[in-house]
Each structure stands twice: as structure tokens, then as C-alpha cells.
Amino acid sequence: MVIPSYTAAVKVAVSIPDDVFRRAEAAAAQRGVSRSRLYAEALRDMLDRDDEITRRLDEVYADDAQEDQVAFARAASSSLLPLLDEW
Predict the structure, then answer these.
(1) Quick one: which of 45, 36, 33 has its CA closest to 12?
(2) Which residues contact residue 38 at a Cβ distance below 8 angstroms, ignoring those fewer than 6 apart?
(3) Other CB atoms within 10 Å distance of the CB of residue 55
(4) Backbone Cα Rg of the chain
């Protein structure tokens, strides 16, 4: 059962090392944002970077797959050319 929330945010409890907490508190204060906003922005940035890395890797591997297919087609056609001469 899902209980509707009055906000667009979900509350969670997480455990983080003390030194990270202290640095995050200082960063939030320096930026003038809440701890929740700082954590949400940091997590969003990390997830966006992960998505970008995945997208770039997909492009690289797609290009490699196309190159492999072209190389295979060339090798196959070159091995078939002598057979065509026999016809």
C-alpha cells in the first residue's frame, strides 16, 4: 500500500561516515542550502554522470560492433571472391 505524500520528496535515513557528514554540513552552510538539497543535488549529479558514462560506453561499443561487422563482411567477401572466379 502506498500512502500519498504531501510533498514531492521522500524521506530516507542513511548512514554516512562522520567526516563526510561534517564536510557536507560545511558545504551546505557555505552554499546556503539545506542538507537535504545538498544531498539530493550531489546524488542527482552522480546519477547523471553515471548515465552519461553508460551512454558514451554504449556509443563506443556500438561503433566497435559496427566496425567488427564491416571487418567480418570484408573478410567474408574476400574469401568468397575466389569462388566467384570458379563460376
Answers:
(1) 36
(2) 24, 27, 28, 31
(3) 10
(4) 27
State whether residue 15 is helix, strand or coil: coil
pTM score, two decimals? 0.60
Asked if the model's pLDDT at residue 5 lies above 60, the reply is no
CA distance 26 to 4: 33
Domain boundaries, the chain: 18-86
Angle between helix axes 18-31 and 35-86 (nearest 10 degrees) is 100
* pLDDT tens digits, one per residue of 29-80: 999 999 999 999 999 999 998 898 888 888 877 766 677 777 777 777 666 6
Q: If residue 21 lies in a helix (H) or strand (E), which one and from where to where?
A: helix 18-31
